[in-house]
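Lecture notes, continued. The same structure-token format from the folding unit now serves as the input rather than the output. Read the line below as a description of shape only.
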């Protein structure tokens, strides 16, 4: 066991408008838990001063650190953060804090019997028509991922709230290679190959304003990403 119990890794791309509130929201819970932790914001070459704003916040919060990087995509950003994390447990969470951080209270006990506890988004049904469109796209992605990539069923690969043991994070992310948005699918593909013990845990999910996900890109580009993962898998790159 190392010195740090929990690493919270937050990938960020142009999040100056949402990240300060997220950091403010998660800090009381992390401090209250009296565990050693670090928050690692990995910036993906943002052009909106996400880095400067985070550095300002970090001046009054020694557990917070920022890793600025050139723009490569969410997969590359998460990979960097997961491998740079020093905690015994590594949480990957979205910058807009869609799942309350205290959901970890329900997830940590499950880590006794597994290597990875992944959130499954439980929707309130109050997302309106824009939320409905995105959910349909999400379900289509899940269906395609099952047809093209997955060998086992996955309840929800796209949830931005996943907890790993450090060992599991190192094993999975050292093998990951997808730089963009399909990285979640690749994570499960690798995990299945490594016989990772995964527990799926329903978590509260609150869709926040300001999503940066481009629906058109999802529909056009993602299937190619899925075939890429399948080919890499067939070539044995995930073992
Ligand atoms: N590194 C990186 N992160 C991204 C990119 N696009 C979105 N994200 C991050 O992905 C997370 C979820 O983004 P969000 O726009 O809320 O997506 P949604 O909730 O799925 O619609 C946030 O932490 C974003 O900063 C990107 O191009 N690069
Ligand atoms: Mg979001």
């Amino acid at each position: 066991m190392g010195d740090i119990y929990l690493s919270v890794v937050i990938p960020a791309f142009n999040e100056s408008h949402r990240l300060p509130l997220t950091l403010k929201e998660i800090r009381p819970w992390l401090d209250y838990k009296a565990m050693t932790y670090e928050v690692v914001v990995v910036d993906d070459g943002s052009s909106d001063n996400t880095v400067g704003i985070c550095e300002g916040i970090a001046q009054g919060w020694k557990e917070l650190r920022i890793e600025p990087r050139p723009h490569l995509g969410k997969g590359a950003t998460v990979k960097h953060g997961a491998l740079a994390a020093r905690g015994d447990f590594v949480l990957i969470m979205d910058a807009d804090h869609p799942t309350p951080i205290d959901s970890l209270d329900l997830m940590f006990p499950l880590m006794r019997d597994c290597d990875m506890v992944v959130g499954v988004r439980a929707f309130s049904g109050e997302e309106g028509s824009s939320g409905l469109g995105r959910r349909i796209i999400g379900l289509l992605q899940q269906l395609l991922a099952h047809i093209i990539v997955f060998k086992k069923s996955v309840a929800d690969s796209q949830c931005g709230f996943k907890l790993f043991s450090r060992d599991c994070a190192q094993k999975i992310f050292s093998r990951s290679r997808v730089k963009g948005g399909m990285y979640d699918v690749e994570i499960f593909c690798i995990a299945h190959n490594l016989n990772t013990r995964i527990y799926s845990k329903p978590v509260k999910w609150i869709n926040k304003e300001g999503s940066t996900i481009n629906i058109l890109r999802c529909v056009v580009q993602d299937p190619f990403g899925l075939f890429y993962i399948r080919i890499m898998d067939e070539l044995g790159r995930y073992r």
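Point for the exam: The CA atoms of residues 9 and 177 lie 18 Å apart.
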